[in-house]
Write a structure and sequence with these properties.
alpha/beta, 30 strands, about 30% helix, globular, binds ligand 6R9, metal-binding, metal ion binding, Acetyl-coenzyme A synthetase, Ac_CoA_lig
Length: about 650
């Protein structure tokens, strides 16, 4: 909470409870990739030496001599005089090491079709695709837009682009024609790789028609796109424009699997990925090659305790998001992991789908988002309990703070009460995991991402940039450059400086609030724009949401700070009740939950209003759009809903709010 000077005092997330902590079991610790705590201080003493050691696990066509060049902050260069081929590190290297027969991808289509690709097969397909792209004119330094469902060709396309030293810009398949076109224009992509469609929720979700619409838009910028390559997946009717559109399966037959990968400088662009900022225009986050591959592979190995010979890894993220880039494509493949890729949604044909996939492939490491966990909680544990999930040995969480209630459910129901949960904090901009427990070392605290990774220096500072002490809250900063950091915002160096560096000089401002607990562990409190100020007290939306879901009747919640004449802002909560619960009724829910929050956190946090709703507005990546709820809570016209997964949600909620006024 804040005092009048705006400094932040801490208060624990659970009141009246003993702090929970779950140390690793002796067995887990014994076999863990990282089980010597000295790694932290060794890396802290000489982070460049630590990262150089990690980088040397990759195959370089030209070894680097310089590790970090930070002479022109905030523009970092890592391993700049070295050269490597990112795709060859994910593919050819493993084949050469004799593990070509290992399964790289177990693909599970939503309708139930499957495809298995070994490392040798994936390498062969990527080489052919690289030859095809070369003859379509793709050269090092070019940009290729990828607008695809979750199918093997998406991975093949990304790796083929990378193999040629070009950069991909993957646009999530749920984005509109306008969003796709804005990203194509910004990156000046000359080729679009897409599919006729993908399967989602039991239906064909068409993609190619959206590409057609995007390319037909009058945007005021000349169209950069020359060719559109179309993978056949769903066989829906699509129009093919002659001279521009080509079927992948027609073209690919002309190319064999001979392709020598050339080395490119470590700072060669690998991809651009767009993420929304505080203004309307999305930011093209630029990542480069050597540092990015170093940190994604290192964290994938250590945070998930990956044993590539025996583990079956599954990250449920769509490849259209950074988690899909770093922890479906580059990290796992650089590590020679065997992984599952699933095309569809967790509720198709029913809510048992994910658990049946875990049972079928013997998934050992499972990485998903709190929003998905809460959705599964809402449906109830009787669903996962019908499946054999005993193969699971590590669980991961990413995307938002995981509330302790969901954490405990995840561990108990999916992890048999034993699997360590790694709560991984990072961002599109950080490229790879920055703050997370290490499962063989850390005593886990539900709800906290806890500790910066070895070689990462992150901490919490106040508005003036002064480090806060243990037990204090403030803003999260990264104090030293890291290998997989964003290099710039594509085409807009000034915006890069203004957004992340202007606030604290050469320290990176992440835009997240955080606090250090008494042990110095980091608790993420949500975006700072989600921090409310109620009567001069700073309150975290995440914290109140967490308190609400601690209530036995509540499945999910979203909290916003709505303008209030007397208190500045007031807490307004939206909650979804569990479908089976009988504790709360429509009549008493509001009063009961207000009381509950006041009891959990303190009277200052008592919501002004609690609305029981059936759905919350979410982006397609599953993040709750609090901005829209704030509009509704303040009685305004609802703002831009184009990035919502389900645009009807906000109409329902604002109609309700008007009725109840
Ligand atoms: C990887 C990813 C980044 C924002 C970030 C923060 C939130 C992500 C979190 C978390 C608390 C975690 N976030 N992981 N907050 N605990 N474990 O999600 O990237 O889509 O760019 O979002 O997500 O607010 O700033 P991105």
């Amino acid at each position: 909470m804040t005092d009048q000077n705006g400094t932040i005092e801490s208060h624990p997330l659970h009141h009246g409870e003993e702090p929970e902590s779950y140390p690793p079991s002796a067995e887990f610790r014994e076999q863990a990739n990282v089980n010597d705590p000295s790694v932290y201080w060794r890396a802290a003493e000489d982070p460049e030496a630590y990262w150089a050691e990690q980088a040397r696990r990759l195959t370089w066509t030209k070894p680097f001599s310089e590790v970090l060049d930070w002479t022109n902050p905030p523009f970092a260069k890592w391993f700049a005089d070295g050269a490597l081929n990112v795709a060859a590190n994910c593919l050819d290297r493993h084949v050469a090491a004799g593990i070509g027969d290992r399964v790289a991808i177990h693909f599970e289509g939503e309708p139930g079709d499957t495809r298995t690709l070994t490392y040798a097969e994936l390498t062969h397909e990527v080489k052919r695709a690289a030859n095809m792209l070369t003859s379509l004119g793709v050269r090092a330094g070019d940009r290729v837009a990828i607008y695809m469902p979750m199918i093997p060709e998406t991975v093949i396309s990304m790796l083929a682009v990378a193999r040629l030293g070009a950069a991909h810009s993957v646009v999530f398949g749920g984005f509109s024609a306008e969003s796709l076109r804005a990203r194509i224009d910004d990156a000046q992509a000359e080729l679009v790789i897409t599919a006729d469609g993908g399967y989602r929720k039991g239906r064909v979700s068409a993609l190619k028609p959206t590409v057609d619409d995007a390319l037909a838009l009058e945007t005021g910028s000349p169209l950069s796109v020359q060719k559109v390559l179309v993978v056949e997946r769903t066989k829906n009717d699509v129009a093919m424009e002659s001279g521009r559109d080509l079927w992948w399966h027609d073209e690919i037959t002309a190319y064999d699997g001979d392709h020598d990968a050339q080395g490119f400088p470590a700072e060669n662009p690998l991809f651009i990925l767009y993420t929304s900022g505080t203004t309307g225009k999305p930011k093209g986050i630029l990542h480069t090659s050597g540092g990015y591959l170093t940190q994604t592979s290192t964290t994938h190995r250590d945070v998930f305790d990956l044993k590539p010979e025996t583990d079956v890894y599954w990250c449920t993220a769509d490849i259209g998001w950074v988690t899909g880039h770093s922890y479906v494509v580059y990290g796992p493949l650089a590590n020679g992991a065997t992984q599952v890729i699933y095309e569809g949604t967790p509720d198709t044909p029913d809510w048992g789908r994910w658990w049946s996939i875990i049972q079928k492939y013997g998934v050992t490491i499972f990485y998903t988002a709190p929003t998905a966990i809460r959705a599964c909680m809402k449906v109830g544990r009787q669903i996962p309990e019908q499946y054999d999930l005993s193969s699971i040995r590590v669980l991961g969480s990413v995307g938002e703070p995981i509330n302790p209630e969901a954490w405990r459910w995840y561990r108990e129901v999916i992890g048999a009460g034993e699997a360590p949960i790694v709560d991984t904090w990072w961002q599109t901009e950080t490229g790879a995991i920055m703050i997370s427990p290490l499962p063989g070392l850390t005593s886990l605290k539900p709800g906290s991402a806890q500790i910066p990774q070895p070689g990462i220096s992150a901490t919490v500072v106040d508005e003036q940039g002064e480090p806060v002490g243990n037990g204090q809250g403030g803003l999260l900063v990264v104090q030293q450059p890291w290998p997989s950091m964003v290099r710039t915002i594509w085409g807009d160096d000034q915006r890069f400086i203004d957004t992340y560096w202007a606030k604290f000089g050469d320290r990176y401002f992440a835009g997240d609030g955080a606090r250090l607990d008494e042990d110095g562990d980091v608790w993420l409190l949500g975006r700072v724009d989600d921090v409310m100020n109620v009567s001069g007290h700073r309150l975290s939306t995440a914290e109140i949401e967490s308190a609400l879901v601690e209530h036995h009747a509540v499945a999910e919640s979203a909290v916003v700070g709505a303008d209030d004449e007397t208190t500045g802002q007031a807490v307004v909560a939206f909650v979804i009740l569990k479908s089976q619960q009988t504790i709360l009724t429509a009549e008493n829910a509001e009063q009961e939950l207000k009381k509950h929050v006041a009891a959990q956190i303190g009277a200052i946090a008592r919501p002004r209003q609690v609305f029981v709703v059936n759905e919350l507005p979410k982006t397609r990546s599953g993040k709750i759009m609090r901005r829209l709820l704030k509009d509704a809570a303040e009685g305004r016209e609802i703002g831009d809903t184009t990035t919502l997964a389900d645009t009807a949600v906000m109409q329902t909620i604002s109609a309700r709010m008007r009725r109840e006024k």
